[in-house]
Write a structure and sequence with these properties.
The chain has 297 residues and is of the alpha/beta class. 33% of the residues lie in helices and 17% in strands. The protein has a single domain (10-278), classed as Rossmann fold, CATH 3.40.50.1820. It has nine helices and eight strands.
Length: 297
């Protein structure tokens, strides 16, 4: 490991000519240490992501990598960086992961991922494009989604887009990646940051909660068509609006993220637990089978 890197401390690393990222290394690491990539939203609070996850990363023995996609270099990072709209965010992340592997000795060819808001947009599109690199992922309150529909051009669906000419989306591969979606119970406002259009509202819903539910249902149904039993969950966070910090503080989002990614034996139990207080008002939380996780009595 590079002598310049510290253990048990969030540190900023500059990848010259490309982008900065924040890195947290637990006390004990080896080649097999798990890696969590955490991607910011449009507030671009990459350092906050690393800081908020640091204690749990130490507890679970996980490396945290939080890339900083600047607005100047990566204005289209949520959609991976289409031609003519800045640099390619997906390729930048791949370079960061190669650098982390080189400087720490930790294998980064397969990682766990989390993203919040715009970062959740990036994460689910990245895992669709690079499913072989993602073990599992958690999406926090994405504004809108790419659906597993090859009749619609990316980023609405998975039909190829000439602005990302080298990317092909293979449902047989990306539908094997387990995903949990977390949304705050008060994240129902159609605020300025939410992408809106008649087409989008009609297809995905008018709020982040509704869009999350429809995406999970679509992914679950598509996986089933391919004979896959991949787990998809959508769960609600208590006392949380569209804020990363408040979702961490009031909705225990960090614990939910680490529970899904690094304690898989608790996934089904956790999905029920997260949703249970809201069964009467929001009962339609779906798992792979498209059966409600919670039934009204």
């Amino acid at each position: 490991m590079s002598a310049e890197l510290s253990r048990s401390k969030v540190q900023k690393v500059e990848l010259e000519g490309l982008l900065d990222y924040y890195l947290y290394l637990p006390k004990d690491i080896s080649e097999s240490t798990r890696v969590l990539v955490s991607v910011h939203g449009i507030s671009r609070n990459a350092r906050t992501h690393a800081l908020r996850f640091a204690s749990l990363a130490e507890q679970h023995g996980v490396v945290v990598v939080a890339p900083y996609f600047s607005e100047r270099q990566f204005p289209d990072y949520q959609r991976l960086g289409r031609a003519g709209r800045g640099q390619r965010a997906d390729k930048a992340l791949n370079s960061v992961l190669s650098e982390v592997a080189r400087t720490t000795g930790v294998a980064t060819n397969k990682v766990y991922m989390f993203g919040y808001s715009g970062g959740a947009q990036f994460v689910h599109r990245y895992l669709m494009a690079y499913p072989e690199r993602v073990i599992s992922a958690v999406l926090g309150a994405a504004g809108w989604y790419t659906f597993p529909d090859d009749s619609m051009r990316f980023p609405y669906g998975t039909k190829s887009n000439k602005r990302l000419p080298d990317l092909l989306f293979d449902p047989k591969r990306f539908l094997q990646v387990p995903v949990a979606v977390l949304v705050g119970d008060a994240d129902t406002e159609r605020d300025e940051a939410l992408r809106k259009s008649e087409r989008l509202d009609s297809m995905q819903g008018s709020t982040r909660v509704e869009r999350a539910r429809r995406w999970v249902m679509a992914m679950s149904a598509s996986a089933k068509q391919y004979g896959l039993r991949t787990e998809y969950f959508v769960s609600i966070l208590p006392n949380s609006d569209h804020s990363f910090s408040r979702s961490i503080k009031h909705g225990a989002m960090a614990e939910h993220v680490f529970g899904f990614l690094f304690e898989p034996r608790n996934v089904q139990e956790s999905a029920l637990l997260f949703s249970a207080p809201y069964a009467e008002s929001l009962p339609q939380w779906f798992s792979l089978t498209n059966e409600p996780l919670l039934q009204k009595s």
